[in-house]
Amino acid sequence: MKTLRALTLLLAAVFVVASCSLVPSEATRALLPSITTFRTAEAAFHVLIERQVDKPTSSLILNGALDGLSARLKKDGLDGTLERPIFTDRTQSDFVKFSGLLEDIARKFPQVERAKLEQAAVDGMAKSLNECHTYYIDPERAKTFNKPPGPYTGIGATISKPGTSEPVEVVSIIPNSPAERGGVRVGDKFKFVDNVDVRDQTVEEVANRVRGPEGTNVTVVFIRGTTEVTQTFTRARLIQPQVISRTLDKDLGYVSIAALNGTVARETKDAVQRLLDQNVKGIVLDLRNDPGGDFPVAIDVASIFVKDGILVYNVGRDGRREEVRTRLSWYLAGPRPIVVLVNRASASGAEIIAAGVRANGVGRIIGARTAGCVGTARVQEMPDGGTLLTADSKMQDAKTGEDLHGPDKGVVPDEIVTNPDAANDLQLQAAISYLRQAARVAGAGR
User: Fold this and answer.
1) DSSP-based three-state secondary structure for 429
2) CB 215 within 8 A of CB 235
3) Which residues pair with 315 in a beta bridge?
4) What is the pLDDT of residue 22?
5) Domain limits, the chain
6) Domain 152-238 sits in which CATH superfamily?
């Protein structure tokens, strides 16, 4: 299965890149005994060295592992000061040095499970690359990894992590949910959940703390601007709608996509067709806070609006560039141009759609710069039952050839509109104004 992913709850699996060697390195290692008892750390180390698109050094990865171990020890109230060996970027010898140190740490701190130390090391390896598609999921969280969305019990806030050093924040709120009734706002950042500091936790970790049995309470401390807000919610059973459509001002269409997975492409096509049957004069495609999802779904959704064209270029570890093209069977003829709304939480597949719409001249992009998390990731099961995702490729703009993936990258809108007043939705108002103007120009040209 192919997939794209940002820093969110909706994650998945992807491209398999062919090896150019006669015997893949994974198979070669399978013929040889492991050099340490830390099989998960060893496997993760080699996967990152051999698969990661940016070809990291062993010293970078192993120093990251030590950072993860230090953080774990400090979290347990122990001395996290570690004497670090000098790594020379000789892959095998560097890992031998690291595994020896990890063995010493395990003996020095027997109160910490060896498995937990190893997981902390692997988590640190992945985080050292500071890459949005590269992360480790421990065995417990891996049980629910990549499952399709369904009913859950929580407060009804969709969350995202805008950066590795920033707290998880609210990016959207389900209508008539405990979050909406409690006055939660988009942009609220999680500080504490039931007295546990979650500022350094991942999206999954925060979500797991907020969720719980229906009818039970959870207390959250939010950072809102320069103040803190404490609220207690009663958890409810909720279903997050993936596609929402309606008309705007009677003759404009609106389609919002929460994430790109499952049957979303078909739902989107059906929604657009219903709007076209109502003779709308233009369509707003709202991809704000859409973290991406499955790669084929992103292509299919883009193909609804782009008849025949290149959406983006996909660049692998070997530097080769491949075209990512639309699929003609998904195309729907209708009013053009459209407006695509994006913001900094629009990632992966959402960025591909926005970039493709603009590159093919069928729409205008309005909002804020997107996440810059545009690539493919490979999923690898680890010996401990956890899951490691590694970035296999990154995307480039089909029109300009510029990188879309990385810090300060992403899709820069044609019209930048910040949205400090969420109640009035200035970005949506700008989209409506543009479509009205486009309709007037089209009418005058007849």
Assistant:
1) helix
2) yes
3) 321, 394
4) 28
5) 25-142, 152-238, 243-376+392-444
6) PDZ domain (2.30.42.10)
Question: Residue 274: what residue type?
Answer: R
Q: What class does CATH assign to 243-376+392-444?
A: alpha beta
Place of tokens 């703009």: 397
pLDDT tens per residue across span 36-56: 789 999 999 999 999 999 999
Q: How distant is the alpha carbon of residue 217 from its chain centre?
A: 28
Is the model's pTM score more than 0.70?
Answer: yes
**CB-based contact 123:136 (threshold 8 Å):** yes
pLDDT in tens, 368-416: 999 999 988 889 999 999 999 999 999 999 999 999 998 889 999 999 9
Packed helices 91-108 and 114-128: angle between N→C axes, nearest 10 degrees: 140
Cis preceding-peptide flag for 337 (omega within 30 of 0): yes
Those residues with Cβ within 8 angstroms of residue 32's Cβ, 6 or more apart along the chain or in another chain: none
Taking the alpha carbons at both ends of the chain, their separation in whole angstroms is 47
| Angstrom distance (rounded) from CA 308 to CA 361 | 11
Residue pair 4/348 in contact by the 8 Å Cβ criterion: yes
Phi, psi (deg, nearest 5) at residue 56: -70, 160
Lowest mean pLDDT among 21-35, 247-261, 390-404, 415-429: 21-35
